[in-house]
Amino acid sequence: MQLFYYPQASRDVSNLSLEKEDTRHMTKVLRKKAGDQINITNGLGDLFNGKIDSITSNRTVIELTHIKHVSRPQPELHIAIAPTKMNDRMEWFIEKATEMGITTITPILCENSERRKINVERFDRIAISAMKQSLQFHKPVINKLTSIDEFLEIQKLGNRFIAHCEDQDKTFIDDALEVNKDACILIGPEGDFSTQEIKKAIESDFIPIALGNNRLRTETAGIYAVTAFNLINKHRS
Questions:
Q1: pTM check: above 0.85
Q2: Among residues 16, 59, 144, 149, which one has the fewest Cβ atoms lying within 10 Å of its Cβ?
Q3: CATH code of the region 77-232
Q4: What is the tens place of the pLDDT at every residue in 174-183?
């Protein structure tokens, strides 16, 4: 199945109108024509059947038929991760985490962060592409770059964890995660969280965790955390 993403698709409308850029992609790149059937999601859990009704040089009109709504998989995983110095590594993490069903990603700004600016729109496009490729109907939320102090203030829901490299008491992630419980996991920059950041996180009820015995790159740590969460919740629905 080939899946298209159009956020404007809704159960309240019967027709979808694509503007010039999307029309060009539909006709010139994908070679679609009037009468063709396509599968569409709005990234909110809805799947539509779309029948191309008409095509002009500037517009494509698609008839929409709502097929089903899929609830967002439970429990939900939120990873707050410091963007990597090499941007392609962060993009790789977003792509793979999306394929694996992550709910929310928040890029965080830390004391030791080497990348202090991000392109949220590009991250969002990568997540959309991965969502379509993996045939999912929910697009993960990609938040703006947020300071760790601000994040600790606003993140109060679910089980909360911080993965860091300092030599102190930590619980292995496999033992810390709980079945059917939402989780938020903090992943630090290449230089790790500062001692003060770790202290603040613990004071905000984030539990220190270890991701195995090896020191991992930031993006690898992120994927390790997603994998552990999915394995704990093998029957997510």
A1: yes
A2: 144
A3: 3.40.1280.10
A4: 999 999 999 9
